[in-house]
Specification:
heterodimer, A: 413 residues, alpha+beta, five-stranded antiparallel β-sheet, 15 helices, 23% strand, globular, B: 497 residues, eight-stranded antiparallel β-sheet, 18 helices, 19% strand
Chain lengths: 413, 497
């Protein structure tokens, strides 16, 4: 493996130009925490951005922070936390699930992967918080997208494309992100023992209530049996947990928790969990703790399924029954994490047929190299859309030098 | 016109009768408008200083017709300008003499309301307000609320990534749209997204939103709806200097409070609005803030007190808190009527739209006062203070020779200033033709070329809404060239329009 550690945007530009000239594609990494997500890449040349790690500007009053792409997520989070601020999309830390070294990775990786946590239902995803970026395209040119203010419609919103593009369009060198105030307190209502479909109904009602629910997750008993940490403390044998989070100023969070408890009375008695204990629960949900790589399901492939939220419960219930797998639900049912018993195709074919029926999509987030090489890791798209996606890729990276092959197995991908 | 548009293609104009007849075959009956008199209403959008009759107007009513119109135009090299309700303020829907104007006004159906998935599927001609009205009985609404929401269509909202008072807290169109059906210039119909929170593949919905009708024609939209907050109350706070008002805005936000809306007006705007609607605005202040808190009653009551204390700490001279819904709406009435109110005190005005980092507000206002003296034109300011989105209104009289040109030069200077202090050329109105030639103030040739390459991925012949957004048109083949050994990518020096 040939690794080039770059120190500034100019070196990134030089590296990409050299890659084009030598027809040598590059794998782009920060801390490398998500390297094993996606199709195995068709290159052994690595562009390492971890030395591009400065905080360029942080202006809490403007609700923005500008950092270089290689800045460690943990450092940036602790910096903004010191001003009582946060990334509202609650980025997932994949180290637990993927069994990588204990780091949350870099900001560039966080944006490129775009894996939002439970607050997605209220605050959106990484795409909604990326205000501007400097990046080097596959033309070997540094370009700017967006700006450094929270409201901007000047030109195409290229930032939306960069977020979640898994490094296949451009090498981000600097990003400007929106930060938001951290809620003063949080409350989690816990319902016990609901089946998936009933829990989905409870979550639908909660998220559609005026109480501003900022997290709605359901963990069936089967998924909890083997977990550790905060969820284990709460879990009882084979008993499902449905979690509903309310955040804000203390008086409001308490009041809304009370109102929601009333509204959901028909679903059973609720427990109330506050602040730090609540936060620990949601970290466990965010990071998909029940399927941790150190746990009993370590060898099971893990899928991330996004679907219309009200269809989640029925879908997940049938999936467990027919695949022998386990699931947990986030986003009020709109996000399902599924650990499925190993199979040559990680059950991709059966799963995708099922997901297509509810207009959802499924990506394999944890899987062996062999499995990832043999299936479509990201959900295949219909012909016209796939072709448009390919043209978009080419408009940024016509020689396909950036993370070649990571998104799809197509010849030019 | 001081903005040049692409030279009309005489060969296309010469074929006009044949084109009209072909379009009539695709869209029969009254769906094709070709007489000069009937095309008059389509000559401009909300940027009325610029007018241009289109070659022909087509008003399809089905996706199939849109697809066939576009395919026909694609095959015959005819340009197309899409249009919603025509409320754009940046000339994004300005017709071209040699282009088909494609109006989506007949797409008025609400196709599906899905409360469980908090999604509504509508056709692009449905007005912004109609979506909220359709879900109101269940206590839901659609959050982005451009001030033209009674008239503007959701398709146009997507084209312009529209916002409004609420977008500080609830985001702009892009944060509230889930999916769409889009027809590409070739006539190809694609569906992007649906009722999922996120779509598979590249975020094409994200880049289509705000693309000003240059990438495709939207024929269906799925939007996210939210449950209405329990209650809302507003404060009306006056300051004898603008800097204190600016500090108040910053202090509210750094206290961790994101209001449902936070708007500022300067002295000329306050006086014009008060004379128009009699909202009870104080007339002895330099800046007036209207701050709205929304949410559960208990939260709103507490936050109102916190904000009041912050305002006092910043030296506010007046502070009124709404005690009824009627009073809250009264506070807003002047702000919402600010544009027509200013229209009463001046024969014409230009409404500018730029965003700045909030901390630069006092500097920007001072510099605007100096520019006002330099150009000999008055300026009134209303703006979305919470997110730094300014709307300077430059007052002029089009009947006085040279005033319009002066007003436009003044406006351009303001936008350059916005960029100079770290802001952007437009916060919500879009680039259109109005700010097209200012794009190089903010973006380098490389930046703009990258944007235009993306355009090529959607519209390889550049037939959809040309002449908008980009100051220099490139052919897609030129943009795709790559020459790395010399270290530079050569582009022929193509003249501007």
């Amino acid at each position: 493996m040939d690794t080039l550690k770059v120190r500034d945007a100019q070196e990134v530009e030089d590296a990409v130009r050299a890659a084009i000239a030598n027809e040598q594609p590059l794998e782009i990494i920060g801390h490398g925490t998500k390297r094993r997500v996606g199709q195995p890449m068709a290159t052994n040349a690595v562009l390492d951005l971890s030395a591009l790690n400065a905080v360029v500007a942080y202006e809490p009053n403007e609700l923005i922070i500008t950092v270089q792409a290689g800045a460690p997520v943990a450092d940036v989070l602790s910096l903004i936390d010191s001003k009582n601020q946060q990334f509202a999309f609650e980025p997932m830390n994949t180290s637990l699930l993927l069994g990588t070294v204990e780091t949350e990775g870099t900001i560039g990786g966080m944006i490129a992967a775009g894996l939002a946590g439970p607050r997605r239902i209220k605050s959106g995803g990484a795409r909604d918080h990326l205000l501007g970026a400097h990046a080097v395209s596959g033309f070997g040119e540094s370009f700017k997208a967006g700006g450094k203010v929270v409201k901007n419609v000047t030109g195409y919103d290229l930032c939306k494309l960069l977020a979640g593009s898994w490094g296949t369009l451009a090498v981000m060198t600097e990003v400007t992100l929106k930060v938001t105030p951290r809620p003063e307190s949080e409350r989690t209502l816990v319902l016990r023992g609901l089946d998936d479909v009933t829990a989905n109904r409870a979550m639908t009602q909660a998220v559609g209530s005026p109480y501003d629910v900022s997290g709605a997750a359901h963990l069936p008993g089967s998924a909890l049996r083997t977990t550790g940490g905060a969820l284990a403390e709460l879990a009882q044998p084979d008993q499902a947990l449905t979690l509903l989070r309310l955040e804000g100023i203390t008086s409001s969070a308490s009041h809304r928790a009370q109102s929601l408890r009333e509204a959901l009375k028909s679903f059973g008695a609720t427990e109330l969990i506050e602040d730090e204990d609540s936060a620990a629960l949601w970290r466990a949900v965010r990071d998909v703790e029940p399927f941790a790589a150190s746990g009993p399901r370590a060898l099971w492939p893990v899928w991330r399924i996004v679907c219309p939220p009200a269809s989640g419960g029925a879908f997940g219930q049938a999936l467990q029954r027919e695949s022998g797998g386990e699931v947990i639900y986030d986003w009020g049912g709109g996000l399902i994490w599924a650990a499925l018993p190993p199979a040559a195709d990680a059950q991709a074919r059966a799963l995708r047929q099922r997901v297509d029926k509810i207009d959802g999509h499924a990506s394999l987030i944890r899987g062996s190299d062999e499995v990832r090489a043999s299936i479509d890791v990201f959900h295949p798209q219909p012909g016209g859309l796939a072709a448009l996606g390919q043209r978009v890729k080419s408009s940024f990276d016509p020689r396909n030098v950036l993370n070649r092959g990571r998104l799809s197995r197509g010849p030019a991908a | 016109m001081t903005i040049l548009m692409p030279e009309p293609d005489q060969a296309v104009l010469a074929r006009r009768d044949e084109i009209v007849a072909s379009l009539r075959r695709i869209v029969p009956g009254e769906g094709v408008i070709s007489s000069a008199a009937e095309m008059k209403p389509y000559e401009s959008d909300g940027l009325m200083a610029y007018r241009q009759p289109p070659m022909v107007v087509v008003l399809p009513s089905t996706t199939k017709q849109v697809s066939e119109v576009l395919r026909y135009c694609y095959q015959h090299g005819i340009k197309v300008v899409p249009r919603g309700s025509g409320t754009s303020l940046s000339g994004g829907a300005l017709p071209l003499a040699d282009a088909v104007l494609l109006g989506l006004g007949k797409f008025k159906r609400i196709r599906e309301i899905d409360f469980d998935n908090r999604a509504v599927v509508v056709e692009p001609g449905v007005t912004n307000l109609a979506i909220s009205q359709a879900v109101d009985h269940m206590g839901f609404y659609y959050a982005p609320d451009p001030s033209s929401q009674i008239a503007c269509s959701i398709g146009g909202n997507i084209a312009e990534n529209s916002g409004g008072v609420h977008c500080l807290k609830y985001g702009m169109t892009t944060n509230n749209v889930l999916g769409c059906e889009i027809v590409l210039m070739t006539g190809e119909i694609l569906r992007i997204g649906g009722k999922c929170a996120e779509n598979a593949g590249y975020d094409l919905m994200g880049v289509i939103t705000g693309s000003e009708g240059l990438l495709g024609v939207i024929t269906e939209v799925t939007v996210r709806i939210l449950r209405k907050p329990e209650t809302a109350r507003a404060l009306m706070v006056g300051f004898t200097d603008v800097e204190a008002a600016g500090k108040c805005v910053a202090d509210v936000i750094s206290a961790g409070i994101i209001p449902g809306g936070m708007e500022m007006m300067d002295r000329p705007a306050i006086h014009a609005a008060e004379a128009f609607v009699h909202a009870g605005y104080p007339l002895d202040v330099e800046a007036l803030l209207i701050i709205e808190l929304d949410g559960p009653q208990v939260e709103v009551d507490e936050l109102i007190q916190r904000v009041e204390a912050i305002a006092l700490g910043c030296g506010s001279t007046t502070c009124q808190i709404s005690t009824s819904e009627q009073e809250r709406l009264l506070f807003w009435s002047g702000r919402k009527a600010a544009f027509p109110a200013v229209g009463r005190i001046s024969p014409d005005y230009l409404c500018m739209d730029g965003t700045i980092p909030r901390a630069q507000l006092p500097l920007v206002l001072r510099r605007m006062t100096q520019m006002s003296e330099k150009y000999g034109l008055r300026v009134a300011n209303v703006f979305h203070a919470g997110d730094g989105n300014l709307h300077p209104l430059i007052l002029y009289d089009a009947n006085k020779p040279g005033e319009q040109d002066r007003a436009e030069a003044f406006g351009a200077d303001i936008l350059r200033l916005c960029v100079e202090v770290g802001g952007v050329l437009t916060g919500e109105h879009g680039v259109g033709i109005e700010k097209r030639d200012l794009m190089p103030e903010m973006f380098s040739d490389i930046d703009l070329n990258q944007q235009q390459r993306l355009k090529c991925a959607f519209d390889s012949e550049g037939l959809l809404n040309p002449g908008k957004v980009f100051p220099t048109l490139h052919r897609c083949a030129e943009l795709g060239r790559m020459h790395v050994h010399g270290g530079k990518l050569p582009f022929p020096d193509i003249p501007r329009f």
